[in-house]
Every structure is written in structure tokens, then in C-alpha cells.
């Protein structure tokens, strides 16, 4: 098998069930792509024998094709999610079994992502056609052109929050950065398929820009057997109204749960409210419509004022009485969950008030109750699935209170942590360390476009030299340690797909040799997948200057010989650091076992950076 099939850069994921009529033509269009370094992951959703035979023949003839047969029928969304889980490429796109891609389309999309690290997904233009006709017509995705996105993403982004959506919905078949699309919740909780891409793309649009390029790269087949046309054929007008209402509510929840500034939330929320009012007006009968028209303007203004008031209250955490007695909007709870959640019993105020949510429950930082952390993590996952957004104001408050002006980011990957910090308004100096060549190229591009951000291509450790890093399929789980067998089984997306020889340097030596200067209080963030103790031992002279330290803490090590929660905590405690905050992390969702958390430590003996 060729090397580029062993370590693919792009994964095309195809969920299919009984698709024998069009499957062969579609697969031929995928294996004919002129981008050599790709894999095609197919999930056969308990299909008939004809479909299985086609898949078996293609798998035998094309080494880039991997077929996974499902013993029992999955839901459509679960089947879409399955191929994403199995993806090992840096970039990912879904492929329906009945659509066709032109030979150069994937390459053109990949070149955009390579050239523009700020773009998270890219789609080509679309040519629509019927399988029983020569008629074709184009869908030009002009509204989300790459040039427009680069000029003003804030304006272009609105296309992904409109109901009904524009032809931007074709982006569901675009090429995404795998690590980004995996952060999107595909299970949005609706009982139909039509327009499910709207809440999915709305979530993706909150994570970063999605764009289109002027290439006729995608042929969209319209036929009576597609899920979309089957649903539309039997959908009544009332059902269509219900579907749009459900989608609007979902998108509204996504907007309200986001971390966008209030003004940007309003810009996305108002068109949804306006569209809902217009549709309700159109549904009124002739007689009632005459009366309604006289009052339409007043009703619309009232509806907008009420919606804006509720949106503002929700964003600011202000309580407002509901129509149902005893129900109230919940203030921000836990670590700043925004949304509605029933309160637990107990009186307000007082020492004995019960927590309104498991997210508010206090954790003993010296001896954490793992069962409690598991319950918190489950609650977070449940709320995320409902469209809520989770941020960490306590960590940000600690950074603000300690007036952090410098960040040392160890294990920066592509700079995601720094980007999230900068979105909050933080403007300090950054020193980022990342050993992997691919991730470092993205990191460097972001740093060069930002003031006060320096990067170093190396790993940090206890001794200077070279070492071999195991490259994970999702990149950010890559480690200088060997992956444990159970971790590879739990996280197939993180399983090793290769290795790379990298430079390892002691942080103390880098500070001295590179002449790093720290202005004001500093923070050290360590995200090195089990290699934490080695980094800390190589930073003994630097640690006394660190005011805040954030570090992954393993309750169940995912890497052989990796540092444990107790080991890291005790090492830092001996040097004057106290554990001030825990951030729930990776868990085994099958058993509920929490495997790792992030700890935020405060230095009680901090030394001035100028000392």
C-alpha cells in the first residue's frame, strides 16, 4: 500500500444505505480526484446485497477506500457522525452516495485551506441536475465568496443563520478542518432530515469562517429516492411551517448560547424574529388577515421589543418571570452556561441553599470527587447537545485579577488556545511552542498576522536533544509518549497515524538563549499529552516567575508513563502553587469515567519577572 494511503491528509466520509443505483458513479468520481493523499471512509448502513457487492468491489480495487459495515441500522445522523469519527485526515468532507465531484474539486478546496489558515471550511459552486433529464442549472454561492469572507466575515456569516437558508446550505458538503467540524454537535434533536444542515452549519459558522470558491466542482443529483425529496413529497403546509419553526428555535438557541458580543447576537437574532412574524402573517386567512394587517406593525414591534428584552436579559444573566408561575430564566450557572434550566430545590440565599445545577457544585481541589466530576461532565455534554455554549469565566477572571500580560503556551498546536484568549479581549505577549511541522506552519501563520506573538518549533522537556513524537489523527493529541491501548480504542480519531523526529529544549534554556523578556505577570499553559512532568522539570528557574499555570491533569493516563493528577499537583504544591480551579475534560462517554481535567494553579510565592 502506498505511503499516502497510510497517512491520508484528507478524508472523504460517505454514509450509505441501499444506494446501488448511483453508488458506482459517485465512487468513481471520488477515486478520480487528482489529490493523491486522501482516504474514502464508507459506512455501509446495513445495506442490501447489491450495495454491499459494489462496495466490496471498490474496496478491493482501490486501497484508499475503507468500508465499515454496520450490523444494525443506524439513524441517518448517526451514520454521518460515524464516518467523521473514523476520519484520520486533517481535512474532512461528507459525500452523499448520489452526488458527483469533478476531478479537481477536492484539490482546489484543499489549496484554500492550506493558504488561508483562518478559513475553517470551503465549498465549490454547484450544478443541479435530474437523473432522468438533461436539464441542469447552477447554484452560484456568490454570497459567501472567499473574497467577501476575508473582507467581512461578520456580514457574510449571517447567511448561515437565516431560515429559510440561502444556497449556502451546500456547504454541508464542503471541505472542513477535521478538528473544527468535530466540535459541532450533529445530534440537534429533531425528527426530520430536511434542513438539518442549518443548525449544523450555524454551529460551524460560530467556530470560524466558511467560504466558497468559483469552481463548478459539485454536481447535486435531484431524484425521488433521496431522503430530502421523500420528506418533501409527503410534507403538508402545516408540517412545513412546523419544521421552519423548529429550525428557527434551534438556530435561536445556538445564537443565544454563543459567546458572541451582544451586538452581534442581535444582528443574527433579529432576522429570525422578523421572518417568523412574516410567516405568521402569511398564514392568516383572508378575513382574519384584514384585521391582522391593521395591527401587524404594532405586533411586529412588540414581538421584536419582547424578543430583544429577553435576549438582553439572557445574555446579561438577568432573571425574568415566565408565564408559568414559579419558572424563571436562570442566571449564569456553573462556568457561565447561558440558557434555561430548571432550578434545583432549596431556598435562595443562605449557606444551605442547594446548587441550582450540578455545574455549581463545589469541588474539593485537594481530593476531587471523581463521581461529581463525571456528573458535571455529563451535564455539560447534555447542555452542549441542546445547543448551549460553555465558557470558563473563572479562569478568565483569574487571568484578569492577576493582570497577566505574558503567556507561555507550551503545546500550542495551531494556536487555538491563544485565539480563544484573544477573543475575550486579552492583548498580552505570547511565546508559543509547537514541535509538529504541520501544526507549526498554521501556528506561525497566525502569529505573523498578530502583534506580540512569537513562535518556536520545538517541544519542551527535561533535557535538550531530539525525540520521536507520535502523530495523532486529530493532531492535538500527538505525544512524545506512546498511546495506551485503551485510549486508542476510546478515541479512534486520536490514534497514531505516523511519527516525526522533533527538537526538544528545556524552557529555562530557551528563556536564556533566546533572550525572552517577560513584561509583567506571566502565565504558563502546558498541553503536552502526558509529558507535563518533563516540561516542569525543565522549567525550574522559570516557574518562580509564573503567576498562573494551567495544565492537563490525568486521572487515568492516556499515554504510557504519563504524568498523573496527584504527581503534577504535589510537584507544584512543593513550589508554592495552589490548585484554584478545575475544568472538566475528556471522559469515557460509554462508562462515564472521567479521564482528565485541566487544573489552574496560582503561585503563592510569585517572583517579579524582572528579578
What does it look like?
The structure is a single chain. With 611 residues, this protein is an alpha/beta fold. The protein folds into three domains: 3-234, Spore Coat Polysaccharide Biosynthesis Protein SpsA, Chain A, CATH 3.90.550.10; 242-316; 401-603, Vaccinia Virus protein VP39 (Rossmann fold), CATH 3.40.50. Helices cover 37% and strands 19% of the residues. Strands 1, 2, 3, 4, 5, 6, 7, 8 and 9 form a nine-stranded mixed sheet that branches. Strand 16, helix 20 (532-537) and strand 17 (546-554) form a beta-alpha-beta unit. Helix 2 (20-31) packs parallel to helix 3 (49-61), helix 9 (197-207) packs parallel to helix 11 and helix 11 packs antiparallel against helix 12. The protein starts with a helix and ends in an 8-residue tail after the last strand.
Summarize the structure.
37% of the residues lie in helices and 19% in strands.
Q: SS-based structural class?
A: alpha/beta
Strand proportion: 15-25%
Rounded to an integer, what's the Rg over CA atoms? 26 Å
CATH topology value of the largest domain? Spore Coat Polysaccharide Biosynthesis Protein SpsA, Chain A
The averaged pLDDT comes out at 80
- Please state the second-level CATH architecture of the largest domain: Alpha-Beta Complex
CATH class of the largest domain reads Alpha Beta
Oligomer: single chain
- In total, how many beta strands? 19
Classify the helix fraction into a percent range: 25-40%
Question: How many domains make up the 3D coordinates?
Answer: 3
Shape descriptor: globular
Distance between the terminal alpha carbons, to the nearest Å? 58 Å
The DSSP helix count reads: 21
CATH fourth-tier homologous superfamily of the largest domain: Spore Coat Polysaccharide Biosynthesis Protein SpsA, Chain A
Largest sheet: 9 strands, mixed
Which segments are poorly predicted (pLDDT under 50) over 5 or more consecutive residues?
Answer: 1-5, 281-294, 314-356
Amino acid at each position: 500500500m502506498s505511503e499516502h494511503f497510510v497517512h491520508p491528509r484528507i478524508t472523504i466520509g460517505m454514509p450509505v444505505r441501499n444506494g446501488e443505483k448511483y453508488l458506482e458513479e459517485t465512487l468513481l468520481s471520488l477515486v478520480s480526484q487528482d489529490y493523491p493523499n486522501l482516504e474514502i471512509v464508507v459506512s455501509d448502513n446495513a445495506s442490501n446485497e447489491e450495495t454491499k457487492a459494489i462496495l466490496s468491489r471498490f474496496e478491493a480495487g482501490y486501497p484508499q477506500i475503507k468500508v465499515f459495515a454496520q450490523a444494525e441500522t443506524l439513524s441517518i445522523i448517526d451514520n454521518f457522525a460515524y464516518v467523521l469519527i473514523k476520519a484520520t485526515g486533517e481535512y474532512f468532507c461528507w459525500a452523499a452516495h448520489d452526488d458527483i465531484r469533478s476531478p479537481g474539486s477536492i484539490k482546489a478546496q484543499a489549496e484554500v485551506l492550506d493558504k488561508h489558515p483562518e478559513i475553517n471550511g470551503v465549498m465549490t459552486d454547484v450544478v443541479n441536475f435530474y437523473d432522468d433529464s438533461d436539464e441542469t442549472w447552477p447554484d452560484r454561492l456568490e454570497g459567501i465568496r472567499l473574497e467577501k469572507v476575508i473582507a467581512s466575515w461578520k456580514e457574510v456569516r449571517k447567511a448561515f443563520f437565516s431560515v429559510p437558508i440561502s444556497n449556502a446550505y451546500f456547504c454541508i458538503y464542503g471541505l472542513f478542518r477535521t478538528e473544527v467540524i468535530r466540535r459541532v454537535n450533529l445530534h440537534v434533536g429533531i425528527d426530520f432530515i430536511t434542513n438539518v444542515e442549518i443548525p449544523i452549519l450555524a454551529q460551524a459558522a460560530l467556530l470560524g469562517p466558511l467560504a466558497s470558491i468559483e469552481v463548478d466542482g459539485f454536481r447535486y443529483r435531484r431524484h425521488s429516492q433521496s431522503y430530502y425529496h421523500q420528506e418533501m413529497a409527503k410534507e403538508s403546509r402545516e408540517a412545513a411551517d412546523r419544521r421552519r419553526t423548529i429550525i428557527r428555535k434551534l438556530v435561536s438557541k445556538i445564537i443565544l448560547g454563543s459567546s458572541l458580543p451582544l451586538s452581534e447576537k442581535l444582528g443574527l437574532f433579529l432576522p429570525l424574529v422578523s421572518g417568523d412574524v412574516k410567516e405568521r402573517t402569511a398564514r392568516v386567512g383572508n378575513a382574519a388577515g384584514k384585521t391582522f394587517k391593521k395591527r401587524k406593525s404594532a405586533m411586529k414591534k412588540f414581538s421584536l421589543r419582547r424578543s430583544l428584552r429577553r435576549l438582553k436579559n439572557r445574555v446579561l444573566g438577568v432573571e425574568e418571570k415566565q408565564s408559568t408561575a414559579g419558572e424563571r430564566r436562570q442566571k449564569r450557572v456553573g462556568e457561565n452556561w447561558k440558557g434555561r434550566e430548571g432550578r434545583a430545590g432549596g431556598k435562595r440565599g443562605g449557606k444551605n441553599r442547594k446548587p441550582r445545577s450540578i455545574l455549581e457544585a463545589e469541588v474539593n481541589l485537594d481530593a476531587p470527587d471523581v463521581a461529581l466530576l463525571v456528573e458535571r461532565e455529563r451535564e455539560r455534554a447534555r447542555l452542549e447537545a441542546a445547543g448551549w455554549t460553555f465558557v470558563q469565566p473563572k479562569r478568565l477572571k483569574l487571568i484578569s485579577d492577576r493582570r497577566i500580560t505574558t503567556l507561555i503556551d507550551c503545546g500550542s498546536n495551531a494556536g487555538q488556545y491563544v485565539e480563544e484568549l484573544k477573543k475575550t479581549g486579552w492583548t498580552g505577549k505570547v511565546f508559543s511552542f509547537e514541535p509538529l511541522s504541520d501544526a507549526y506552519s498554521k501556528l506561525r501563520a497566525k502569529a505573523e498576522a498578530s502583534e506580540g506573538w512569537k513562535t518556536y518549533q520545538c517541544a519542551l522537556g527535561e533535557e535538550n536533544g531530539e525525540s520521536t513524537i507520535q502523530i495523532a489523527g486529530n493532531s492535538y493529541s500527538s505525544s512524545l509518549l506512546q498511546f495506551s491501548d485503551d485510549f486508542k480504542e476510546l478515541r479512534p480519531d486520536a490514534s497514531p497515524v505516523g511519527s516525526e523526529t522533533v527538537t526538544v529544549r528545556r524552557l529555562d534554556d530557551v528563556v536564556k538563549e533566546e533572550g525572552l523578556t517577560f513584561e509583567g505577570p506571566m502565565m504558563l499553559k502546558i498541553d503536552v499529552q502526558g509529558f507535563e512532568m518533563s516540561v516542569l522539570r525543565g522549567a525550574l528557574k522559570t516557574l518562580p516567575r509564573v503567576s498562573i499555570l494551567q495544565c492537563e491533569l490525568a486521572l487515568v493516563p492516556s499515554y504510557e508513563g504519563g504524568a498523573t493528577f496527584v504527581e503534577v499537583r504535589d510537584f507544584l504544591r512543593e513550589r508554592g502553587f495552589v490548585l484554584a480551579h478545575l475544568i472538566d475534560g475528556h471522559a469515557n462517554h460509554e462508562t462515564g469515567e472521567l479521564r482528565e481535567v485541566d487544573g489552574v494553579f496560582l503561585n503563592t510565592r510569585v517572583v517579579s519577572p524582572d528579578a
